[in-house]
Write a structure and sequence with these properties.
The chain has about 425 residues and is mainly alpha-helical. It is about 30% helix and about 5% strand.
Length: about 425
């Protein structure tokens, strides 16, 4: 972490920091601070903003003119073979002896142990007593119940028969479009219901399909997951473009119902509710600090210069909701070449078209003059993003450093300007 801060500046966060922040949110002793409620939307919007901030700092350091992080159109109306396969993110399920991902740009992606990761993030934790996480059972930065012993990223099959020859299949588009098509209703379909619709019909299943699940053979049959699932879901580098897509759908729905913005689309100001545990608890109401035990600050998401007085002001759920995922945001999503008419996003200029693999620019500035989709090598924004991640690229660092340095991005280049 210190090395990265020295090289890339105060906006840098490494992957250990980001995964630990996500784990602290999911493992909070107060109750889940990141999922299974209306708070899912602002939490992940702020998290992807942090990711993009770091990614941009790193790509700029390496001379890549990247204006945003990309989103991933992970639906069955486009060919997914270039994304989920040996060219980019690897073959799923993993082809290693223990389902490790051993091909693609992130082959043999290292998962740190708890003991080596803990000293890197604990200085940034505001309230250690809010989370009793001490690593996985095997001592890694994985979910508490995981008994995985592999040093590398694991992707199990999602089917019960554990067929390693199975291939990931893109998700159908209709369920998520159905969530967006439902208009706001204060009682029957507010932000709480929309958030659950997105999670239940799409988000959870992408994590499950790509991360996979296994059961122990002991009498308890405890379930544990691959590294794109569970508490450590953001260990996998595909988390960034996937969650940028999630944010894109939130932007579409909230902006389509903008006349209800003065109600915060029904976001709770008290009695925040978790629809999985069916209970209310502190920490997830509108004015609450996002993940207050391990908070996200203004400087982390591009709202303040690191030297400004308000740099360390913490972001609350309402602020993230109001300034990240609706028309108040200073960014827009751009359709990729070949996107269906029903897909969210705008066509700004032919110069913004990326390749047709389903990875495209998350956001660009609205001004024609400030749009930049390539660099001196003639790469598109999506390709530049992938190159920044590529441990084998001649202008990158060693493989062990690649993920640690690139996985803290803020959404400003991708969704804010």
């Amino acid at each position: 972490m210190d090395e990265g801060l020295e090289k890339y500046g105060p906006l840098f966060k490494n992957q250990v920091y980001m995964v630990a922040l996500h784990i602290y949110a999911t493992d909070s002793l107060r109750g889940e601070q990141a999922h299974f409620g209306a708070h899912f939307i602002p939490f992940h919007s702020a998290l992807t903003a942090m990711y993009e901030t770091t990614v941009l700092a790193i790509t700029q350091h390496h001379g890549l003119e990247l204006e945003s992080t990309p989103y991933w159109w992970c639906f069955n109306d486009t060919d997914q073979s270039d994304i989920i396969g040996p060219e980019y993110f690897g073959t799923y399920p993993g082809k290693g002896p223990n389902y490790e991902v051993i091909d693609g740009r992130f082959a043999f992606w290292e998962i740190p142990t708890y003991n080596e990761s803990y000293p890197q993030y604990i200085p940034y934790v505001a309230d250690p007593s809010d989370c009793d996480y001490t690593g996985s059972e095997a001592g890694f930065l994985r979910e508490s119940t995981s008994c995985l012993t592999s040093d590398y990223m694991v992707a199990f099959p999602s089917s019960a028969d554990m067929n390693q020859s199975a291939k990931y299949e893109a998700f159908p588009l209709e369920p998520i479009m159905g969530c967006i098509a439902c208009g706001y209703d204060s009682e029957d379909y507010n932000i709480f219901h929309f958030s659950w619709c997105v999670q239940e019909k799409w988000h959870i299943w992408i994590h499950s399909d790509l991360g996979g699940w296994r059961y122990r053979n002991d009498p308890g049959g405890i379930e544990y997951s691959g590294d794109f699932n569970g508490q450590q879901g953001n260990s996998n580098p595909i988390f960034i473009p996937f969650h940028n897509t999630v944010d894109m759908f939130y932007t579409e729905w909230l902006s389509s119902n903008l006349e209800w913005a003065n109600t915060s689309w029904g976001y709770p100001y008290e009695n925040g509710f978790n629809y999985l545990t069916k209970r209310t608890y502190d920490g997830i109401n509108a004015w609450d600090t996002i993940n207050s035990a391990f908070p996200i600050r203004y400087k982390d998401v591009g709202w303040a210069d690191p030297s400004a007085e308000n740099a360390n002001t913490t972001v609350n759920y309402l602020e993230a909701l109001c300034y990240f995922v609706n028309e108040n945001a200073d960014y827009l999503y751009v359709k990729f070449s070949g996107a269906p008419d029903t897909a969210p996003g705008e066509i700004v200029s032919p110069r913004n078209s990326t390749n047709t693999t389903g990875i495209t620019t998350t956001t660009v500035a609205a001004s024609e003059e400030t749009i930049s989709v390539g660099n001196s090598d003639g790469l598109t924004a999506a390709e530049a993003f992938l190159k920044a991640y590529d441990a084998n690229s001649d202008n990158r660092l060693e493989a062990a450093e690649a993920f640690l340095e690139t996985l803290t991005a803020d959404s400003s280049g991708g969704r804010r300007d």
